[in-house]
């Protein structure tokens, strides 16, 4: 319990520092730009301060006339946060913070990474991004000493120790340790799939899933294995592939302690102990169930009137239900040809002479 309190205090202080560091950095940049513009003269600085004050009062007056600024809003924000966004009515303490916020509406991203040329709205986000190139991980877990590049990732990680799941689904009371997981989960209730593939019209609940799906059409495989240079569409595929090199088997059977490199293989193995025979693929015509989708596909041929044995041999016109059986059959033809060629060579005049 003492650890949880200590860790929470540490995180709260660190988050406070990081947020205010980024805000102060934006303010310092704004002030330094003002200083370099020739505002060292006290009289000019006083005039500039008066101009800022007038602009502040002007914005406060404009915002008070808008629909979003009620009397309660003016009381709470006009003094503490005099700078108001005309687009969404959000208020800020400093003009530079408002200017940064406006980029959300304008789409402006003036800060770019010199390594990969990715653009960002503010310098603090760029600074966090740079850690992906430098490998810097300044935030660490006090319990397991694992380090992270962002405080938000550390905060989520700490919940694996504390068991805290602050994000609850109001539909089924299921809880999650991060907001993004709750957001993904909510699509199971709403059925919402707003992201559509323009090539095949398949729809997805998340933009990231659509981006991954698009690689099927583009053929893009951006994730490379450093051991054998094999390419993959997704990081999860690469991660699974890497286990063939490392020999890692993270999934253990609790009944016999046998270990596996993939969760799906472990699930299949567990049926040995449970005796379970899952039939998740059902025929809509006769409701017969199958353990594999490929078996169901072959069965459906009996209803559609198509050939039950769609794989035909070009040599003898014999047909087969599975492609690998046809391949084995073709090997038999190839062996026969080799034998006939060998016997023909033995009976040739040249061989008899030798």
TrEMBL record:
Sorted alphabetically, which keywords does the UniProt record give? DNA-binding, Metal-binding, Nucleus, Repeat, Signal, Zinc, Zinc-finger
Gene Ontology cellular component?
A: nucleus
Task: Identify the PROSITE patterns for this entry.
Answer: ZINC_FINGER_C2H2_1, ZINC_FINGER_C2H2_2
Q: What sequence ranges are listed for the domain C2H2-type?
A: 83-110, 111-138, 139-166, 167-194, 195-222, 223-250, 251-278, 281-308, 311-338
Q: Which GO terms describe its molecular function?
A: DNA binding; zinc ion binding
Q: Which SMART domains match?
A: ZnF_C2H2
Q: Which stretch is the leader sequence? A: 1-16
The record ties this protein, via InterPro entries, to: Zinc_finger, Znf_C2H2_sf, Znf_C2H2_type
Q: Which domain of life is it from?
A: Eukaryota
Q: Is Methyltransferase set as a keyword in this record? A: no
Q: Name the segments for region: Disordered.
A: 18-74
Keyword Repeat on this protein? Answer: yes
Tell me where in or outside the cell this protein is found: Nucleus
Q: Where is the composition biased (Basic and acidic residues)?
A: 27-55
Protein family: Belongs to the krueppel C2H2-type zinc-finger protein family.
Name it.
Answer: C2H2-type domain-containing protein
Q: Name the species this protein comes from.
A: Oryzias latipes (Japanese rice fish)
